Structures are given as C-alpha cells and as structure tokens.
Amino acid sequence: MMDYAKQMEAQRRAFEAQFGSLEEMGFEDKTKAVEESESDADGVSDSNDENENASDEDEDEFHEDMIDRVDDEQSDSDYEEEIAIQTPQPTVIKFRDTTREYTGVSKEDQKLLKSGKATIKKKAPITTNTPKTKEDTEDLKNDLELQRFLSESNILQQHQKYSGADLLSTTLEGTGTDSLVGKVRRHALKSRIDGLSEQTSHGKNRSKLEKMPMSMRKGMVESYKKKVAKFEQEAKDGGIILAKVSKGQLRDIGKKVTIHERIGKLDKSKLKSQYRKKGLKINSVGRNTRNGLIISQKDIDRINGTGQTKGKKHGKRR
Fold first, then answer.
1. Is 183 inside any structural domain?
2. What is the three-class DSSP state of 293?
3. Biased-composition ranges for Acidic residues (predicted)?
4. Domain of 262?
5. Is residue 38 part of a domain?
6. Cα–Cα distance between 17 and 209 in angstroms, integer?
7. Helix H or strand E segment including 311
8. Looking at the 3D structure of the chain, how many domains does it have?
C-alpha cells in the first residue's frame, strides 16, 4: 500500500511540474482529503478491522478513479496542443517598398481578365551564362580551320607544283596574305563562295546547268562517279581522312572547277529513296477541298472535248 501511495505522489508531482496544480487550473484536489482521511484512520483502534478493510477498498477505487481522471486530463491537454499546432497560422506580409510609381496592367493580363481566365505567371527561361574563355575561341577557330583544310585538301593535292608566275605573285603580295596562289587560290575561293551561296540561298536562285544533250550529261556523270570512287579508295588505302559529304551530293575532287556547272552537285539516284511513294499516277478531275470537290468549267470542256483547240488563228492579212 505504501508503494502505491509513493507512486501516486510521484505521479502527482510530475503532473504539477508540467501542467501546474489542480487548484490553479480550477479543479478540486481530492488527494489532500485522502491524505487527511488516511491520517485519521491510523488513530482508530484495531477493533474496527472490518471497517478498515472496507475503507481500504473504497480508497483503492477512489485512487483508480483519480488516475483515470488525471490520464483523461493529460490526454485532453495533449489533444489541445496538437490542434494548436495543426491549425494554420496567419501569414504576415510587410510592404516595405518606398517607391510610389504605378505599374499598369499589361494588355495580355487585361485580355485574360476580360475573358474570365486567371493570369498565368510565365516561367523564366533557364539561362546558363557560361563565360567564354580564350581557349574556347581558339578551339573554335582551330575547328573551322581544320574543317576548311579537309574540304580543300583535294585541291591542294591536285596542285602541288607552282609555276614561276605563281611564285612571283607570292613575293609581290608578301608573306602576310593567304598562302594559296594561282589555280589553287582560284579553286579554293570558288569552293568557299559556293558554300556561302548554298547557306544563304536555302535552295533558291541556284545557277542553272549548261545546256547539253542528256546522253552526254549522263556519260559525264557516270565517268565522274568512277573518278570519285577511285579517289576515295586511294584516300582510304593511304589513311587520308576526307571531309564528309551530305547524302545525295557528289564529292568535289578538285580537278576541274567548272565540272559541277555541267553535271551539278546532286546524285539523283540516291535522292529517289528520300521521296515517299504516292501511289498510282491517275489524271484526276477537279480539286478536293474541305468544302467538297470543285470542278472548273475548263475540266468539263476538256472531258467533253468541247474546249478551244490550240493552233494558229487563220485570218485575213491587213
């Protein structure tokens, strides 16, 4: 019994240290009355053993009730603390901007407001400003020079010897100018100009080929393909790296500057695979639109055979 009383006293002290006494919280502390009743019960004679046993049972029940009440109060206080933590606190916004300039609403926001839509904040594009160093500029310059050297290596290979006039022109121009001279210089400039024109024209305003019989042009194309194949095989055997050629183009081997003005730069046999098959070629009538089939009067006359016949108009001379 004494151990139980000590445990209850320790629990009461712990509760008062955390939450305060029951009297401060507005409740009646019945444990003090229990202590007084216990002190009075100690002065009673031993003749009332049966009454003592009954009072002990009542005290046990009372203590159990007090423990349950204390546990309930503690659980209620914990629940109130959890609710206080979970309830959202109001956010405080402080306006410290001292500027009084008015920034008007943009036209896009006005249109959205009139249409009843909410304004959407656009995401700022992620920009990675990596500062360019001297090494990057030098690497880019070296890459361009290497690309140009590979594209013009065939021209340099075909013209390894210089004439006296070429050497004289180099001495007159000085050492600061481009090292290419004579035909090599002309061929290199021609290839660079062609490359620039292809980049800027985007397939428009290309120079037309020279007029010649189709059989002659086909023969020139076949012979040029054989020369290109031989040139690539010799370069492969010698371990020479050649510049890449896009699909459907003929390689420039640098022997003749004007050869592409006669046969062109495209290999149409390789380009045929790029175009999709559109089915049978049937002479259709009219044109299909989203509103339906439209047949013109010209198509009707052509089918009926009542159209105007082409020919010279015979009339009297004036």
1. no
2. strand
3. 36-63, 70-83
4. 210-273
5. no
6. 105
7. none
8. 1
